[in-house]
Amino acid sequence: MNDSQLLKGILEGCVLGIISQGETYGYEIISELEQYGFRDIGEGTLYPILTRLDKNGYIRCRKDKSPLGPIRKYYSITNEGMNRLMEFSSDYRKMKQCTDMILEKAIYKADSDNNERRE
Amino acid sequence: MNDSQLLKGILEGCVLGIISQGETYGYEIISELEQYGFRDIGEGTLYPILTRLDKNGYIRCRKDKSPLGPIRKYYSITNEGMNRLMEFSSDYRKMKQCTDMILEKAIYKADSDNNERRE
DNA sequence: ACAAGGTACTTGGCAATACAAAGTACCTTG
DNA sequence: CAAGGTACTTTGTATTGCCAAGTACCTTGT
To answer: Smallest Cβ distance to B20: which of A13, A88, A110?
Structure first.
């Protein structure tokens, strides 16, 4: 995934989705995202998202010391956050449906054009 | 789809996908997008995309008069554009895979939490 | 002839967001 | 006490969707 523009808006929903599974903190979220396949999400990308989600009341924050490093900020999802997550999921699904339809048609045509040329 | 951020990067790929099906022009692309389910894509959104695609060599432009209005700019896809479309499609698919996984897990958990509370 | 409305493209400015880069600071281990 | 991993912050930049307004062509009705 080279195209960082594709992540606009997506990342926020994914972070909210991860936090919805249980209390967690920034540094861990980055490695979670990596496990799901999102490569190279830097700290300068994630932390502003957390700040924004917090400011909007979608997550809440609790500071606590870490067993092996500096203080962590643990985040958990709020009721408003759950609503936002559902809304995001619905918007995402609609976007996907439209895009998939266009791409399927385009790729199908490209393939058959390609086959015709070979014959 | 209220979340316009979700469209970032997506729209360009979709427009390229539509043009790949055959020569077309701006005003028609907007109604195509609408038919696929993208609502309220304004001219101030689409035309800059076309300019960009053209400048990057992904599409080429030909001016011709319209049977019922002012001059049209007809666009068709180039070889580079086809490559870009395939690349976009691949990036999009990867993004989708990661996002779907996270959302499915989150929604599943939300559902079962919900059911437990009812029991 | 003229107004209205649909067609068609252009331009300028704004807001949101991903990201790179650099910085601060804590802790463990050798 | 140096090195390296953990953890969060800040600043600046580029990209992109979108609103608003403008220009201009053409047909149709009065």
So the answer is: A110
